[in-house]
Amino acid sequence: MPKEKNLKLKKKTFQAPKGTFDILPSDQVWREKICKIANEVAKGYGFGKIETPIIEDTELFVRGTGADTDIVEKQMYTFKTKGGDSLSLRPEFTPGVIRAFLENGLSSLPQPVKLYSVGPLFRYERPQAGRYRQFNQINFETIGSQSSATDVQIIQMFFVIFKEIGLKGINLQINSIGCKDCRPAYRKVLTNYYRNKTDRICVDCRRRLKENPLRLLDCKEEKCVILRNSAPHIIDHLCESCHNHFKSVLEFLDELEIPYMLNSYLVRGLDYYTKTVFEFWPEDESVRQAALGGGGRYDYLVKLLGGRDTPAVGGGCGLERIINQLNAQNAKINLPASPRVFLIQLGDLAKKKGLKLFEQLRKENIYITESFSKDSIKTQLRLADKAGAKVALILGQQEVLEKTIIIRDMAIGVQETIKQDNLVKELKKRFSKK
Ligand code: AMP
């Protein structure tokens, strides 16, 4: 093959895998703000940060999330390692957090143990707006309490976060899906309701009817939605304990003035939920395609994963969906301030000394930027202007030898030469005046 042709073939460019995206420096402003607020709220409410691996034993999700849930059945990235183990990219946080809670002896700490995580999750989905194959979640778990106050505290924290980032119009939808005492009876009632209607539901729902009839309430197929609208409500079938728990959750929400909508069809597609389930939805119809987040109580999961009987509750919100929603609301964010000082260097010696001077000023918390890759004064002054710097420092060979530096006021163009030893003091004086 001629050399040139060979070169052309090698010139293949690459794209991020379908459903994934790069997060560029210019995308970081909202992300950093949201994560900072989430961290502060989490700390304020006594949640400790936990980071678990992105990969886990596949069986953890099969047993924890549930073998016949959509997440495990259709959306998990699973692979065999060279050693023959089956691992999966985490599609959600909770099973990994509970595994870590048990493995690291956190179960012997005073209960409840409150943990939060921020990071990427992976689901094989058909990509569309707000639905990606790699996305990020902010997630809270309170492990070791059956108090309804802990359910509400997680909901409250998300509302505090929404408020502090300036996100408006978020509705809480809430339901109770009972426990192992009352759910079986409701399942029977529901199965009876659908029994002679199987020709009017989708293929998936026909299967769900045998495996997990509650999931029929979750189906988005139009014909299933129509039937569902007349289905019996689970809250009419709760046992006393679940009824009281739900009543108390609603009372706490009233006390906190968090408005909610009861949604008897909210079941959340996972196996492990008991009692309270909730979701956050945008009020605005035009961006209603997806929930911002959700969660619920999961009183049996810790035991299912090998621990003692430990009630728990948790919830997660998608970072990208929050940002999409902020953008849809044209929410404003303060852009980072411009650097105050721009260091201009002229000649090799000045470049060498300039590197050191830059670090000295940075360490003094003076917001400084530079252009070490440039040589001409004209270019560097133009860049200083573009960066919005208040002051340019000009360091040439003569200044290095005399241990001086030129300070130029960028607004009026006036320059003066001062001793380098007085530079920090002079800059602080100038900036304290403004
Ligand atoms: P779920 O556990 O499926 O209810 O997900 C909780 C939250 O994670 C959702 O409300 C979204 O904010 C976010 N989320 C879930 N799946 C995706 C996805 N494929 N892409 C972006 N965000 C997602």
Secondary structure elements and pairings:
Elements (H helix, E strand, L loop, with lengths): L2 H8 L17 H17 L3 E2 L5 E3 H9 L3 H5 L3 E3 L5 E4 L4 H10 L9 E10 L11 E10 L4 H18 L4 E7 L6 H13 L7 H9 L10 H7 L11 H16 L4 E3 L11 E9 L10 E5 L3 H4 L7 E7 H10 L12 E5 L2 H16 L4 E3 L6 H11 L3 E5 L1 H6 L1 E6 L5 E5 L3 H11 L1
Parallel strand pairs: 1-5, 7-8, 12-13, 12-14
Antiparallel strand pairs: 2-4, 3-4, 5-6, 6-11, 7-9, 9-10, 10-11, 14-15, 15-16
Helix pairs in contact: 2-6, 3-5, 6-10
The structure holds adenosine monophosphate.
Describe what this molecule looks like in 3D.
This protein has helices at 3-10, 28-44, 58-66, 70-74, 94-103, 148-165, 183-195, 203-211, 222-228, 240-255, 301-304, 319-328, 348-363, 377-387, 397-402, 423-433; strands at 48-49, 55-57, 78-80, 86-89, 113-122, 134-143, 170-176, 260-262, 274-282, 293-297, 312-318, 341-345, 368-370, 391-395, 404-409, 415-419. It is of the alpha+beta class and 434 residues long. It has two domains: 25-182 and 238-328, 2-Layer Sandwich (BirA Bifunctional Protein, domain 2), CATH 3.30.930.10; 341-432, Anticodon-binding domain (Rossmann fold, 3-Layer(aba) Sandwich). An eight-stranded mixed sheet has the order 1-5-6-11-10-9-7-8, with helices on both faces. The chain has a five-stranded mixed sheet with strand order 13-12-14-15-16, with helices on both faces. α13 links the parallel β12 (341-345) and β13 (368-370). The longest helix is centred in the middle third of the chain and has 18 residues, at 148-165. The termini are far apart.
